[in-house]
Amino acid sequence: MFTPVKIVRVWLPGLIIVIGAAMLIISPDIVGLEGFALMLGGGLGVIVSNRIHKMGLQGEKDRDREMDARVFFERYGVWPDEASPELLARAEEDRRREAAGAVTPDFAADPDAAAPVAGTLDDAGGPGRGEPAAPAESPHRSGSAAGPARRRRP
Fold this sequence. Notes:
Elements: H1 4-26, H2 30-76, H3 85-99, E1 120-121, E2 127-132
């Protein structure tokens, strides 16, 4: 009932408005009316700022759902809302396995894919099935002032 969020979102603006009403009751002249108007404006300002903050947090949830959908697409090759029930069940099983601590390699999503070959790089530069890994570059630049030296392909 008295969580910090509820205090700020409900009780604080309510208290401010009630104080304004008390000012109007205590002093029914112009001073009380002005105090009521100021407190009403302050309470409504707190309500509006809370709503704006809540809308901002909703945007975070939307971005998180979008990121989850993109990860699903990268892993299974189809968007979650277009996936078959079998694929959704498989994705849920993979998620449970990962949550339990079992490490699922990236290539496990495609059962026909070969395991990474040692000494090769994938498109992202990590170990994979792509080109042979290049030897480490020297930290010193070589080549002319116009740019780095270019290697010739064998």
